[in-house]
Amino acid sequence: MRTICAALTMCIALALCAPSVKYVSLPGYAFKTDPKCMRTVSKAKFDRKCDWPKLGIKDFTPPSVTVLGI
User: Fold this and answer.
1) Is the pTM higher than 0.90?
2) Residue 61's pLDDT is what?
3) In this structure, which of 8, 33, 64, 70 has its CB flanked by the most CB atoms within 10 Å?
4) Tens digit of each residue's pLDDT (9 = 90 or more) over 40-58
């Protein structure tokens, strides 16, 4: 029973800490962007409010992280 509780607690903690996908690559956009955001510049330019990463690295893809960083 103790093992089941520990495993359940770990699963819940991992589910709550997992990052949500907010920024996506859209056709015609130079950077990953939040599709719900109202842009202030053209989609070919970096919008500080809507685009990611904030450094403005074009076509940046973060490395995938698996369980326990393995």
Assistant:
1) no
2) 67
3) 33
4) 998 888 888 888 776 656 6
The residues facing 32 across adjacent strands are 52
Task: Answer whether residue 12 shows pLDDT above 70.
Answer: yes
**23: amino acid identity, one letter:** Y
How far is 44 from 51, CA to CA, in rounded Å? 11
| Sign of the torsion formed by the C-alpha atoms of 42, 47, 52 and 57 | positive
Residues contacting residue 31 through CB under 8 Å, at least 6 positions apart: 46, 47, 51, 52, 56, 58
Alpha carbon 6 to chain centroid distance? 28
Question: What single string gives the DSSP state of each residue in 25-41?
Answer: --TT-SSEE-TTS--SS
